[in-house]
Amino acid sequence: MKIKISDHPTFNKEWDKKENEEKTKKMLKKIGRLQNKMYAQNKFSILLVLQGIDASGKDGITKGLVKYCNPLGIKIFSFKKPTENEYAHDFLWRVHQVVPRKGELQVFIRSHYEDILVPTVEKFIPSDVIEKRYEVINDFERLLETNGTKVLKFYLNVSKEAQKERLIERIELKEKHWKHKDGDWDTREKFDEYLGVYERILNTCNVIPWHIVPADKNWQKLYAVAEVVLKTLEDLDLKWPELVSERFNTQNKPE
Amino acid sequence: MKIKISDHPTFNKEWDKKENEEKTKKMLKKIGRLQNKMYAQNKFSILLVLQGIDASGKDGITKGLVKYCNPLGIKIFSFKKPTENEYAHDFLWRVHQVVPRKGELQVFIRSHYEDILVPTVEKFIPSDVIEKRYEVINDFERLLETNGTKVLKFYLNVSKEAQKERLIERIELKEKHWKHKDGDWDTREKFDEYLGVYERILNTCNVIPWHIVPADKNWQKLYAVAEVVLKTLEDLDLKWPELVSERFNTQNKPE
Question: Given A128, A176, B212, B213, which residue has the most CB atoms within 10 angstroms?
Answer without folding.
Answer: B213
